[in-house]
Amino acid sequence: EHIGSQPESYKKKKQYRFEAVLGTGAFGEVKQATWTPPPDNPHYADAQKVGGQIEVAVKVIKKKALKGDLQAVVDEVEVLTGLNHPNIVKLYDSFESKEKFYLAFQLASGGELFEKIASRGKFTEGDAANVEGIKYLHDHHIVHRDIKPENLLYIKPNSDQLVIADFGIAKHIEDNESLTSLAGSPGYAAPEVLLKQGHGKPVDLWSAGVVTYTLLCGYIPFRATETQKLIEECKAGKLEFHAKYWSKVSDDAKAFISALIQPNPDDRPTAEQALKHKWLVDAAKRQHEHD
Ligand code: ADP
Ligand code: MG
């Protein structure tokens, strides 16, 4: 499987000027770059707006680090291709060299939602944006499976536009299909993932609930470092809203979190239902009044 033929890939790399490292992951690093797409590229129109170049974030993945599973990157590209939503990071281009894959994404220069933890303590558009993005993915039969603050990025500094990034373990899913492969990140993964039971779309709603909880108080709800203990905590699904950190948070916000963090996936709302939750609807309304 190839995402770009070899000679073509060398030509393509010349279209990029690489700059600072934005982040490092398990498979390589993500570098900021300016891209000059050729005139026949569909993104050329975007580029023309900014003087012939587009600011991008290029995920550089070392093939060696994939330990034979090159298909993982082909899947990542395939899942992202054709998606178009303001809360989903856009993949502009992809190519490969002998040793590396290159995925060029829309630059999210506002940084990770992770950095905003505990500096806010109240609703922002980001809470709704995350669920909006998840709904769009689920409508397109995609489960993200790794929703967490490190993978939620702001498009610009001081902007409220949040995008879901990192489709490294996202999967296509058919109705009634159940996924069993490894997924998620400790602390954010749903109990059915940790228990290696079949899982599906509801895992993203659990993780969204954990993200909202964490953003409102500054710490994650299930914190055991030992896997077995963490599984027990998640399976019990017992949420504590410690008065010291939660007294100023509305009951609606707590109700929203409690609705999502349900140990039984069948008890969680769908993304569509979550978007209709009073907390999101009222808070979004209030924000628009302040605009
Ligand atoms: P990994 O699978 O290694 O976690 P990610 O796709 O999450 O890879 O990228 C790692 C980090 O690189 C992110 O957490 C983020 O800080 C940064 N990053 C990824 N994509 C972008 C982007 N489009 N714009 C800006 N920074 C990005
Ligand atoms: Mg990531």
TrEMBL record:
One of its GO terms (molecular function) is protein kinase activity. The keyword ATP-binding applies. Transmembrane segments: none annotated. It comes from the Eukaryota. Keywords: ATP-binding, Kinase, Nucleotide-binding, Transferase. The keyword Nucleotide-binding applies. Residues 16-280 form the Protein kinase domain. This is Kinase-like domain-containing protein. It comes from Rhodotorula diobovata.
